[in-house]
Amino acid sequence: MYDCEDDPRPKATRDMCQFCVQHGDGKAWYLEASNYAHDLTSDLERRGFVIDFVQGFDGMRSRANTWVDMLEKAPAPAEKAIKARITKRQQAHHFGQPVPIEECERIFDFATSIVRLPCVCRTYAGKSERGYCLAVTATPMDDTLAEAFGGFEMGPDISRLESMTKNEAMTLLHRCEQEGLMHSVWTFITPFIGAICNCDMSSGCMAMNLTVGHDIKMMWRGEYVASLAEETCVHCGACAELCPFDAIDFNRAQKRVTLRQEDCWGCGVCRAACKKNSLALLPRASVPAVAEVW
Fold it and tell me: Is residue 236 part of a domain?
């Protein structure tokens, strides 16, 4: 184990390692059951954060647009410092990471309260909204969600807050993968995990667009990276159509598929399109080329 002060690894890797150790007891932080166990009826700070998050979402979008405008005009050293400050704040309050569907299933085993929600990102972006988000906790949070969405400025019908079984939630996630949507877990005051979202770049996801599109880190890459078995791949290109991060190229003229692991976020959605099982997930730490890329 490295001494923190002498650790030669890139800062992003050190930060992610420390985050998992601190909030995941040495394993992936989102697989630590205690991170779902907070009771919002007694945890007033987190309850207030959830309510303010939903009801104040339009203000957050406005601030995010201000960040983008400000960073476009800032000199390089200032831009780096501003981004680092934003990331530090996000990691303490509202932080996300892609999670493959198998580990979502493990999350549902201990996050026994699953409620389907309207997606605030899609709503404000004017996108089609069919209940893509899930509130996941180990204790019911129905009252908190009803209060949050009851005062939601865009006014969704709170009767759409639908409690789901694990099997129903897994069916939803499989459907999302067929639409090319990655699954990601999100904190609401770290390390409390409150949601699994299902997004792509076109869905209006604010965090995904800021992170991938503007390099303002609102989420980290996943614990895995995709691998392509050339010997079984038939180069149909179906995986390239689904990949939410455009990490797979398909040359139609040459009928050739190329996976760029340096652009892979480890969501595993590409596998849903492959009829030959030519795509798999490997632990990021086991692939030297991307082991330090978070």
Answer: yes
Here the tokens at position 52 are 């303010």
Q: Taking 90 as the threshold, does the pLDDT of residue 9 lie above it? A: no
186-227 confidence digits (pLDDT tens)? 999 988 999 999 999 999 899 999 999 999 999 999 999 999
Residue 20 structural domain: 11-214
Shared-domain flag, residues 201 and 233: no
Domain count, the chain: 2
- Report the 3 state secondary structure along the chain: CCCCCCCCCCHHHHHHHHHHHHHHCCCCHHHCHHHHCCCCCCCHHHHHHHHHHHHCHHHHHHHHHHHHHHHHHCCHHHHHHHHHHHHHHHHHHCCEEECCHHHHHHHHHHCCEEEEECCHHHHHHCCCCCCCEEEEECCCCHHHHHHHHHCCCCCCCHHHCEECCHHHHHHHHHHHHHCCCEEEEEECCCCCEEEEEEECHHHCCHHHHHHHHHCCCCECCCCEEEEECCCCCCCCCHHHHHCCCCCEEEECCCCEEEECHHHCCCCCHHHHHCCCCCEEEEEHHHCCCCCCCC
**What pTM, to 2 d.p., does this model score?**
0.88
The residue from 192, 214, 236 where one domain ends is 214
Distance, CA of 177 to CA of 259 (rounded, Å): 18
- Whether 180 is in a domain gets the answer yes
Q: Which CATH number goes with the domain that contains 267? A: 3.30.70.20
> Looking at the structure, do residues 184 and 141 belong to the same domain, yes or no?
yes
If asked whether residues 128 and 62 sit together in one domain, one would say yes
Which of 160, 184, 214 finishes a domain? Answer: 214
Q: For residue range 50-80, what is the model confidence (pLDDT) as tens digits?
A: 999 988 888 888 988 998 998 989 998 899 9
